[in-house]
Amino acid sequence: MSGPDGETWGDIRGGGAGGWDSLVLSGRTSLERHGRLAVHGPWGSGRTTLVDDLATRSGGQVLRVHAREADQQLPCAGLAQLRDGTLLTGTSPTPDPAARLGLRIATARALSARPGTLLVVEDVQWLDPVTADVLEYCARTLPAGRLAIVATERCAERPARAARLLGGRPPLLAVEPAGLDETAAMLDGLGLPARCATAVHRHCGGHRALLAACCADLEAAARTDPDALTGHLASLSLRRADAVAAAWLDTVPEEVLATLRTAALTTQVDADLLRRAGCAAAEDHVEYGLRAGLLTTREPSSAHEPGAVRVRFAARALTRAAPLTTDAPSRRRAHRALAGAVRDPVRAAWHRALAQDGTDAETARETAAAAVPARAAGDSRLAAELLLAAARLTPVDGHGARLERLTEAAHDAAVAGARDLAHRAARDIVEDRGSPTQQVMALLAVIDAYGQDLTGAEPVFTAARRAAGADPSLRAAIELRAAVQANVAAGDSARALHHASTAALLARAAGDVPLESAALTMVARMERVLGRLEAAPATLARALTLGVPPLRMGIRNSPEYLAARHAVFDGRLPQARAALMELLPLALAAGCAEDLAEVWRSLAEVDAALGACARALRWADSALSVTATADLSPGPAWYTAALAHSHGGSFEQALQYATRALRASRAEHDPLHTTRSLWVMGAVHLHSGHVDRAAAALMEVAGLEERSGAGDPAVLRWQADAVEAFASAGQLPRAHDLLDRMQRTVRPHGAHAMLRAALTRSRAVCLHHDGDSDGAVELLDDTARVFSTLGTPVEEGRTLLVRGRVERRRRRSAAARTAWEQARALFEAAGARPWAALAEEHLVRLAGIPSGRGGSDVREATPGSNLTAHELRLAGLICSGCTNQEAAQRMFVSRKTVESTLSRIYRKLGVRNRTQLTAVLTPSAGT
User: Fold this and answer.
1) Residue 332 carries which DSSP code?
2) pLDDT tens-place string over residues 163-211
3) Which of these, 926, 856, 304, 827, lies nearest to 614 by C-alpha position?
4) The dihedral of CA 90, 96, 101, 104: what is its sign?
5) Which residue among 215, 478, 502, 835 is least crowded, i.e. fewest CB within 10 A of its CB?
6) What distance in Å separates the CA atoms of residue 23 and residue 584, rounded to the nearest whole number?
7) Residue 25, pLDDT score
């Protein structure tokens, strides 16, 4: 796609499932089936590119009419294009009403003379009335076999004009914005880091022209400085994306654009506010923006958010570009008008600050004071922006006050994860020659704002150490961050322990109690990872004894949060949940995005294990939301989403999240979540029956864990899944080797109870593969009882599933059925949807296979043995009396999918109806 000056912006075609190829396929299918298609979308959405792809693949002659805004009142302008295309001959068409019928008939005759022709009519919103009338007649009278027609209309909502042209009710194809997966696939295809996907998607809103331009900007930035692509776009030059956004805004009338400029300076598009700020026709202009796709609506994010729907810009790029379409004095006047129109005093102070030209001590004081309620409301980013604005407004003689405001801004930016704002504050403090403490605190705020992605943070550490000198408190703070870097970025637990221990000693020498508590907490965390099960609780108790409130050091860094995490590792899940629920209100009140994400992620993990799978999915969704909103590293939240979906969503969705998490964590050099993502990916492959893929992923986990020096296997319980995957993939020696190593590592300690149970289940799998089914059943019974005692119904159900498989292999169908029915009941009570479906699938298979007598396996000779597992499950539901709709709901698919799958089953089995299907698949009495 090219800009108005001819500069290439990039290819708007995305990639991946559900992306551009899916749009083209939908268009081709509708066109082949109906011969008519109305394509619609806003400016730059890709309508022309889509019809170009459809035309290229049509295989026949293609004729085009491309209406233009300047020609919409010019009679026959569109038909004249067909004449130039040699379809019509003779003199130019005339708009004479008396000749209109002849014009209709002549055009229809000419178009029908070449069967298989595809007529493409673009931008019908500008089609002149005569051409529209003639083409409507052709569409109405010519059958699809003689003439196929595609009409495009620039609009975000229903294409009324295109629909009317094609007869009133044609198939509609909206060129929807690219989703996050397509955005990530597009970045991946260009060799750009996946960690940018969330920020790019939010910046572009999935708008394809914006997305192509933004990718071109990122490619240019990567060529200049590969480390610049950190997942945060605020500090990058996005010249092409800005140009596309400005070009899109330029498609609306000037009076509408003036209102949108003012709206872009506010937090949301509110017609009442805009009217109070002087935009008299705000309602009409907002409606225009919605039709043009520049604005969109969203539902309220929570029950506490008033109002039915909210209006916002369709892409952040528009809010960035709109104010820049006018000059600075005009922007200041708009801010001044908004300051008098908003009812929120904090926002009023913000607008007054931006309306001020130059410095002003009183405005600076008022702006800095507004940061306090913003921070109290949990909006740390706004607090940082207010303080940066206050620093800018501070006169030269207020040097001390300016530095204090910059230091506070850096802290708030770190809490918000706003790396761009933290960098600005730190840069200004260094340039203003702030004190060593101010410089170090600001530089540490930059490091804290990096989140999981500590790529490129080393120069900041170097600058902080230089500024700290010999000050023990400042050095302790730096050593604590170095411990986090060693743990998260390098995966070096021993080095992380060394840095944390040094930080604790320095903090104690400096008398800095909060810092000492945070350092001791980090020491305890690393001691646990390294398997020092006695030392870690003692160190954690020392940190708790210091009595520092969790909010003082950040909840995720507090000993209270680590105590909850240790309870998770130990399998003390009710205790862990109670502790996390005590911390959640504190995190909500503080509004720190990273703290909220950590607490919600832990709650998702705990509730999934406890069998509250629906609740776990909600926690995971909350973590995803705050991660996206605050531009946090997406890997951890995607990993948690994969874990939650592997319990209560679907294995397919879990695998998608695990893949995203792995891609992002590798791009961010985060070995901790790389390992976790590989584990959940391998586990999902195992549960889905792809044992070779499971074994490969879990082999990689084993290597990463060995290199990390992790000593406590209960921190990440991947080992049992690995043993089961190796055994099921025919790698029994490897499975036994891992079991033997775990037997030497896992201790008879309460902290390892859940891991011991999982390993016992995997040992039973090995025994079964070794031929000792009796021993396997005995171990599985013990394991199921342990998981029941621990209160983990999904793990108990998994154990019963394995028990049923063992019994089925032993030709004990009744015992297998009992185990699977018990498992299904547990899964259904827990809301473990994919596991309930798996248990149901086993039962369906069992119902379709008569009990084997005489010791020979008769499966191949059994009716239904040529059906896939998916088909067998559907057949079982139908045989049990389910309607198509009921079966669709049970299998989490559409009714249309059920109907097509059922037709395939009938063909395979040579039956014609449900009665015959039931007779074929249901075992006769006495078998």
Assistant:
1) H
2) 999 988 899 999 989 888 788 888 878 888 777 888 888 899 999 999 9
3) 827
4) positive
5) 502
6) 42
7) 85
Phi, psi of 440 (to 5 degrees): -65, -45
- CA separation (Å) from 201 to 20, 664, 891? 15, 14, 31
- 658-667 in b/e form (b: 16+ CB < 10 A) is bbbbbbbbbb
Question: Rounded to an integer, what distance in angstroms lies between the CA atom of residue 849 and that of residue 861?
Answer: 9
Which class for 370: exposed (0-12), middle (13-18), buried (19 or more C-beta within 10 A)?
buried
Residue 841 carries which side chain, given as an amino acid letter? E
Length of the chain: 927
Strands ordered across the beta sheet of 62-66: 62-66, 117-122, 147-154, 36-41, 172-174
Q: Which residues touch 292 (CB under 8 Å, ≥6 apart)? A: 42, 43, 154, 155, 156, 251, 252
Tokens of 437: 């403490």
CB atoms under 10 Å from CB of 789, counted, come to: 11
Dihedral sign of CA atoms 248, 254, 259, 263 in order: positive
Residue pair 800/767 in contact by the 8 Å Cβ criterion: no
Q: What values do phi and psi take at 38, rounded to 5?
A: -105, 115
Q: Please tell me the distance from the alpha carbon of residue 728 to that of residue 691, in angstroms, as a whole number.
A: 6
Which tokens in the block code for residue 310?
Answer: 């909210």
Measured between alpha carbons, how far is 152 from 142 in angstroms, rounded to an integer?
A: 19
Instruction: Find all residues with CB under 8 Å of 259, minimum gap 6, and list them.
Output: 274, 279, 281, 282, 285, 286
Helix (H, G, I), strand (E, B) or coil at 3: coil
185 closest CA partner among 194, 198, 176: 194
Task: Find the radius of gyration of the CA atoms of the chain.
Answer: 32
Q: Which amino acid is at 725?
A: A
**Residues 618, 838 contacting (CB under 8 angstroms):** no
Burial 128-153 (b: 16+ CB within 10 A, else e): bebbbebbbbbbeebeeebbbbbbbb
Segments of the chain scoring below 50 in pLDDT = 1-17, 85-91, 300-307, 849-862, 923-927
Question: Please, are residues 872 and 878 in contact by the beta-carbon 8 Å criterion?
Answer: no
Residue-wise pLDDT for 640-681, tens only, equals 999 999 999 999 999 999 998 998 888 777 888 899 999 999
SS3 120: strand
Are β-strands 295-298 and 147-154 bridged in parallel, bridged antiparallel, or unpaired? unpaired
If one counts every other C-beta atom within 10 angstroms of the C-beta of residue 289, the result is: 25
Q: What is the largest CA-CA distance in the chain?
A: 100
Q: Look at residue 192 and give its three-state secondary structure.
A: coil
Secondary structure element (H or E) that encloses residue 121, with its range: strand 117-122
Cα separation of 482 and 443, whole Å? 13
Q: Are 130 and 95 in contact (CB under 8 A)?
A: yes
CA distance 54 to 150: 9
CA proximity to 827, closest of 793, 802, 784:
793
Could you please report the per-residue DSSP string of 837-895?
HHHHHHHHHHHTSPPP-TT---GGGSTTTTS-HHHHHHHHHHHTT--HHHHHHHHTS-H
Nearest to 773 by CA among 784, 765, 761, 781: 765
Task: Using DSSP, state whether 267 is helix, strand or coil.
Answer: coil
The pLDDT of residue 783: 93
The amino acid that residue 796 corresponds to is E
Q: Are 605 and 640 in contact (CB under 8 A)?
A: yes
CA–CA distance, 253 with 263 (Å, rounded to integer) = 15
- Pair 505, 472: CB distance under 8 Å: no
Distances in Å between the Cα of 153 and the Cα atoms of 57, 525, 752, 770 are 21, 59, 63, 66
**Distance of alpha carbon 193 from alpha carbon 137, whole angstroms:** 52
pLDDT of residue 14: 42
Place of tokens 């809103």: 205
Indicate the SS3 state at residue 8: strand
